[in-house]
Write a structure and sequence with these properties.
- The protein is mostly helical.
- Helix content is 69%, strand content 0%.
- The chain has six helices and no strands.
- The longest helix has 35 residues.
- The protein is elongated.
């Protein structure tokens, strides 16, 4: 049965029960919107760089346990370097997060910030958190002595750039136009 919707109260009077149909349709639209935004919110929560970092670290750990192939870089210098990389990555993430808080803008990946941060670590790298993620991955690979997993670092960098950095830069260009163009000219993407 076709449903005709009239936008006036008179239309509801002429078609008894139509207001109930309208309420029903409205409820279904709201439920559908909530479901899709709920799925989108869940996707946005799962499809984030920290989740990808954890997956790559887990792959490195699994490789070190299941498929070590007798390869090793175990050495006190490797342990020191892994500690420095992990510590440096954590410090970089913390200073970046504090910059977001100081400038009162969002750190969430799938949202557009209200302003461009150009001071502190953001004066040296447009993506210090992603740089920190790569440092963390490399540090954990050394910590796990997962020699075969060194190949994961360039794959991770490529994936993060393709999946997150390029779309984010596109959003920033559309939002901030000339200001972001100047920032891009002044500060490199990674280092």
């Amino acid at each position: 049965a076709a449903l005709t919707v009239s936008g006036t109260a008179e239309g509801c009077k002429r078609h008894p029960g139509s207001h109930m149909r309208l309420l029903g349709i409205f409820a279904l639209v709201l439920i559908d919107c909530r479901r899709s935004s709920g799925r989108r919110a869940m996707r946005d929560l799962i499809d984030t760089p920290p989740v990808w970092l954890i997956l790559f670290i887990a792959a490195a750990w699994a490789q070190s346990r299941v498929l070590p192939l007798g390869l090793s870089v175990e050495h006190p210098v490797a342990d020191l370097l892994s500690g420095l990389l992990i510590g440096g990555g954590l410090v970089l993430i913390l200073t970046s997060a504090l910059a977001f808080r100081k400038h009162r803008t969002t750190i969430m990946q799938h949202q557009t910030p209200e302003r461009i941060i150009q001071s502190g670590v953001y004066a040296r790298s447009r993506n210090p958190i992603f740089l920190a993620d790569a440092l963390l991955l490399l540090g954990f690979i050394l910590r796990f002595d997962a020699v075969l997993s060194f190949v994961l670092v360039p794959i991770f960098v490529w994936w993060i750039e393709k999946r997150f950095i390029l779309p984010e830069e596109d959003r920033m260009r559309r939002t901030f136009r000339l200001e972001y163009a100047r920032y891009e000219q002044k500060v490199r993407r990674w280092l």
